[in-house]
Design a protein that fits this description.
Keywords: Aminoacyl-tRNA synthetase, ATP-binding, Cytoplasm, Ligase, Nucleotide-binding, Protein biosynthesis
Catalytic activity: tRNA(Gln) + L-glutamine + ATP = L-glutaminyl-tRNA(Gln) + AMP + diphosphate
Distance between the termini: 73 Å
Helix content: 25-40%
Enzyme class: ligase
CATH topology of the largest domain: Glutamyl-tRNA Synthetase, domain 2
Number of strands: 29
Structural class: alpha/beta
CATH superfamily of the largest domain: Glutamyl-trna Synthetase, Domain 2
Shape: flat
Subcellular location: Cytoplasm
Subunit structure: Monomer.
């Protein structure tokens, strides 16, 4: 690794420095340590790629070690799912290990701690412990049980192990320093009583080690050279090292814990607790629901191992937590599937198209290219006939010159087939188009080499022959959350941002070449996106999941909402320039209607914060955000909201003062905070409209 000319990330630099300082490369060993209390998610995938990637780069073994120390939450199902996901991602571990493999050794070491006066049994309640532990700014005080004799501690600890006490009556604590500035060093818990069945050890143990106790010692027993964790474990490193100090033999490898940043993904959550909540509350259909950020969910959605590995490589390793836009992940799967996915034709919102001059009963089998990105992909045959389905949105009875699809009197090409011209439509009693009648140019067959076939037309449409079409259930998935960071808003439940339109189920009509498609087969439905066969498919009914669109529609939506904000900010300047109240009302109405179309909660919050300043246009706009957008006063941090109210009440503009008084009138929770300021304003106000509104309050 050191000889390669490449830029090293800081993790690799740590390893290279250790090798330079004498650590034999043959002694390198890494591990991936999941807790089997849920399915792996995209954040775990980055950690997997890091640890197993290091193993590949340094030709070092990597252990898969399950942190199975809490039988209350862990199940064999999760163990199996984790192993399946790691292997599917393309990695293979050296040894399959479990913290439970070391329960006896951990217990024996704990006994030695007691004998050396470094651990004791505490019999306080959890509430008493929390109180005596102190706060980050105040030192803790010793437990009344801290000075129990060694003999008493040994007796109690063995009886805990034998199951003689109920849960919560005793714990084993390390005796370190109750005045430490690191709260984790204030006599941390090593063991607690749990009368739970363990998925591997059964009922053999009634006490279970805490993560901090089991983690470093498991690393040590496996002779892991580098133990990489996410940043939340940085404060734990001191405790990790303290525990190792008590057992370390300098003839062995001493594990080194180092931390890297968690990479959060926008429009989703990567907390197993919150993912479990989504499953339990049935917002999704299980851990492998294609909307979930789990590896199993992404796999079922149609993501490939290569796309996820490429995503992990693209975002890299960092020292600061960061929110990665999900569009980066979507780019990676588009890039992969663009090279490998066969192109096929499918219609998801059909309208019937009749080629009136095509002979009834005739059919042709036309050549269609499987993938223009792969010269070895070859061609397939697709059936063509008089009656076809096309997408309803591909036709307009009357259209502007900028509409490049089918309309009356204009020509378009049917993909792999002929040029057609719109002639007339058939409608039902309600005026809905039920059929589009067209004529075709018999000499215009694609690839025939005729002059007509080379004629340029405004657009190309995909289609399927009605007589040959296969019906399939098509699940159109969208992002699970409407907000980019749903679990970071103070006072808001992340479930409030669940996208009600994250799943739409339609009946699609597919070309017959898809009849033999199998689970996880992937295709590009031309002009529609990438789709994969779902495991719910049967011999009688195909089910497809939409993996991703051909382009980032959310980026377009995001830009549209940002444009609404930017344009509204420009428009609001007109409010102060127009001469009449009628004109001002028109400006306000237009801005208000636009703001109602902005649903990005984070965008609204950030916009509000940015516009709380002494500029009258900015203050008026911020008040309009509270008045017209989905943002409520309760959604805004109290300090920020009060700053807006206070600055608006002091504004030189009576229009700003008028709007803030209206907002305060509707904000009962905060109105009383400004009663004195409103009273002062009432005594000094000169604007009649503002004064009248104040008098109403």
């Amino acid at each position: 690794m050191a000889s390669e000319e490449k830029s090293l990330n800081f993790i690799e630099q740590i390893i290279e420095e250790d090798i330079k300082n004498g650590l034999s490369q043959q002694k390198l060993r890494f591990r991936f340590p999941p807790e089997p209390n849920g399915y792996l998610h995209i954040g775990h995938a980055s950690s997997i790629a890091l640890n197993f990637g290091l193993g590949i780069d340094y030709q070092a073994p990597v252990n898969l070690r399950f942190d199975d120390t809490n039988p209350a939450k862990e199940e064999q199902e999760f163990v199996d799912a984790i192993k399946r996901d790691v292997q599917w991602l393309g990695y293979q571990w050296e040894h399959e290990c479990y913290a439970s493999d070391y329960f006896q050794q951990l217990y024996d070491w704990a006994v030695e701690f007691i004998k050396k006066g470094k651990a004791y049994v505490d019999s306080q309640t959890s509430e008493e412990m929390a109180q005596q532990k102190g706060t980050p700014s105040t030192p803790g005080v010793d437990s009344p049980y801290r000075n129990r004799s060694v003999a008493e501690n040994l007796d109690l600890f063995e009886r805990m192990k034998n199951g003689e006490f109920p849960e919560g009556t005793h714990i084993l604590r390390a005796k370190i320093d109750m005045k430490s500035t690191n709260m984790l060093m204030r006599d941390p818990i090593m063991y607690r009583i749990l009368h739970k069945h363990h998925h591997r050890t059964g009922d053999a143990w009634k006490i279970y080690p805490m993560y901090d106790w089991a983690h470093g010692e498991s690393d040590y027993l496996e002779q892991i050279s580098h133990s990489f964790c996410t940043l939340e474990f940085l404060p734990h490193r001191e405790l990790y090292d303290w525990f190792l100090d008590q057992i370390y033999d300098d003839k062995t490898i001493r594990p080194k814990q180092r931390e890297f940043a968690r990479r959060n993904l926008s429009h989703t959550v990567v907390s197993k607790r919150k993912l479990l909540k989504l499953v339990e509350d049935k917002h999704v259909n299980g851990w492998d629901d294609p909307r979930m950020s789990t590896v199993s969910g992404l796999r079922r959605r149609g993501y490939t191992p290569a796309s996820i590995r490429n995503f992990a490589h693209t975002i890299g390793i960092a020292k600061r937590d960061n929110l990665i836009d999900v569009s980066v992940l979507e780019f990676c799967i588009r890039e992969d599937l663009n090279k490998t996915a066969p192109r096929v034709m499918a219609v998801l919102d059909p309208v019937k198209l009749v080629i009136t001059n095509y002979p009834e009963g005739k059919e042709e089998w036309l050549d269609a290219e499987n993938n223009q990105e792969d010269e070895n992909a070859g061609f397939r045959k697709v059936p063509f006939s008089r009656e076809l389905y096309i997408e309803r949105e591909d036709f307009l009875e009357e259209a502007s010159g900028k509409f490049f699809r089918l309309t009356l009197g204009k020509e378009v090409r049917l993909k792999n087939a002929y040029i057609i011209k719109g002639e007339r439509v058939v409608k039902d009693a309600n005026g809905n188009i039920t059929e589009i009648h067209v004529t075709y140019d018999t000499d215009s067959l694609s690839g025939s080499g005729t002059e007509a076939s080379q004629r340029k037309v405004s657009g190309t449409l995909h289609w399927v022959s009605i007589a040959h079409a296969i019906e399939a259930e098509v699940r159109l998935y969208d992002r699970l959350f409407t907000d980019e960071s749903p679990d970071t808003h103070k006072g808001k439940d992340f479930l409030e941002f669940v996208n009600p339109n994250s799943l739409q189920v339609v009946t699609g009509y597919l070309e017959p070449s898809l009849k033999e498609a199998k689970n996880e087969d992937k295709f590009q439905f031309q002009r529609l996106g990438y789709f994969t066969v779902d495991k719910d498919s049967t011999d009688k009914k195909l089910v497809f999941n939409k993996t991703v669109s051909l382009k980032d529609t959310w980026e377009e939506k995001g830009k549209k909402e940002e444009n609404i904000i930017n344009n509204s900010l420009k428009e609001i300047n007109k409010y102060f320039k127009v001469a009449t109240q009628e004109e001002r009302n028109a400006v306000e109405k237009a801005i208000g209607e636009e703001l109602k179309n902005v649903n990005n909660f984070s965008l609204l919050q950030n916009t509000l914060k940015k516009n709380i300043n002494n500029n009258k246009s900015s203050l008026l706009f911020s008040n309009y955000l509270l008045k017209y957008s989905s943002l409520k006063p309760s959604d805004v941090e109290t300090e920020t909201l009060h700053k807006l109210y206070s600055m608006s009440l002091k504004s030189e503009s009576p229009y700003v003062r008028l709007e803030v008084i209206k907002n305060l009138k509707n904000d009962e929770a905060n109105r009383s905070e400004f009663s004195s300021q409103l009273a002062e304003l009432k005594n000094s106000e000169k604007n009649e409209e503002v004064l009248n509104l104040l008098s109403e309050n």
